[in-house]
Amino acid sequence: MPTPPLAGGTAGPAALRPLVDTVLTALHDGAALRDGPLPAGGPDTVTPRTRTATHPLIPDHGTGPHHALRALVTALTEGAADPAHPHCAAHLHTPPLALAAAADLAASALNPSMDSWDQAPAATALEADLTTALAAEIYPHTPSPDAVITTGGTEANQLALLLARERHGPVQTVCATTAHHSIARAAWLLGLPQPVTVPAPDGTMDPAALDATLTRLDPPLLVVATAGTTDTGQIDPLDTIADLCTTHGAELHIDAAYGGPLLLSPTHRTLLHGLDRAQSVTLDLHKLGWQPASAGLFAVPDRHHLTPLHHHAPYLNADDDTEAGLPDLLGRSLRTTRRFDALKIAVTLQALGRTGLATFIDTTVTTAHHLADLITKTPALDLYDRPTITTVLFRPTDADDHTVATLRRTLLNRGHAVLGRANARGRLWLKATLLNPHTTPQDLQALIDLVTATRVDLETPTAPPHP
């Protein structure tokens, strides 16, 4: 077999073009074979079929690039949960924009490593400009806000606790019972006390309970509020929480991984009032930003707040190189080798602009409200509450939790729909997290019909077999 071509250089695009055609064909063919939001049959069907189609993964003699791409990409696509399908709506799992995926191809082909300038000259400049611009969206009134690219909310939340620890020592974290699980995990990883949790009886942090908790705890304290909870998509009362933090001398971190992009919508940005009062903010554009994962961000109001992240490795940021003007990138992440995830974000922002992204956001929020309307009009279903962002919880009327869980798994196993599950108000709910701006009212009605028909099907007695 001849030496395979590389993706970079002037010859790279010519080598990539036929391979990309093979990939695109395989993506199409696999989606046609699947013909739905996910493959039917559950793990017992999907796993052996995938293994059969891709075996052996390490043959003695290679099958060649086109055969390997065709076989594996087709099998993966046939067995995928496709967030571009309107009935794939379980998680904060967005259908990525085609232009963002195309930009990701360029990032892969160029392969800059964002840990030293000599591996990423132009990428360093573009990432710095992008993070500064996005930080300014969150902190419009501070002179030098900054942000770093992360793998997502989990890494960004860990950075928040790490920097609070570096400023104050073993800080005590306080969060609502609805906070993301990464807060407790970060405290564990960093050797910090287990977070103290505050009740959230209506789905958001109870300010009175927070006040009482901060009163009895000794400093240093870090309060973590959430703008877009995982289960219900609700937003904590950010301004009120910020006021309490000021009163008690606590710092505030806001996990806006889900709700943060609402800042780009003039219609909905008021939901985030008080966001700029936090000492740090988490943002994920691979949620309500339609980016391929990962596209996370950790923002601070002043670039000097990131100084504790600085790390010295002479082969990457020697003092004389830095003094000579080469940018030092090791303080931009906890990671060393780091992918150029900024490119797809920058391409999307430039291509769509503020108005284009605002339209996407507004359309998706409107779609969630339309689904809530349909549920309200369906006697066989109960609605949890009006959506705050794009999460809609509902359940069959008079069903117990076992029925709800079984209904969800039945839809999964039949390949009909991907709905999430959430516990709220002491009951289990089906969760639709709507992130597809192409979803139509007809798609939503079809989803409602699937849920109600499946519930009837589950309750219909099965005739005994003939003797």
From TrEMBL:
InterPro entries: PyrdxlP-dep_de-COase, PyrdxlP-dep_Trfase, PyrdxlP-dep_Trfase_major, PyrdxlP-dep_Trfase_small. Gene3D superfamilies: 3.90.1150.170, Aspartate Aminotransferase, domain 1, Type I PLP-dependent aspartate aminotransferase-like (Major domain). The keyword Disulfide bond does not apply. The keyword Zinc does not apply. Signal peptide: none annotated. GO terms for molecular function: transaminase activity. It comes from the Bacteria. Belongs to the group II decarboxylase family. This is Aminotransferase class V-fold PLP-dependent enzyme. SUPFAM superfamilies: PLP-dependent transferases. Keywords: Aminotransferase, Decarboxylase, Lyase, Pyridoxal phosphate, Transferase. Its cofactor is pyridoxal 5'-phosphate.
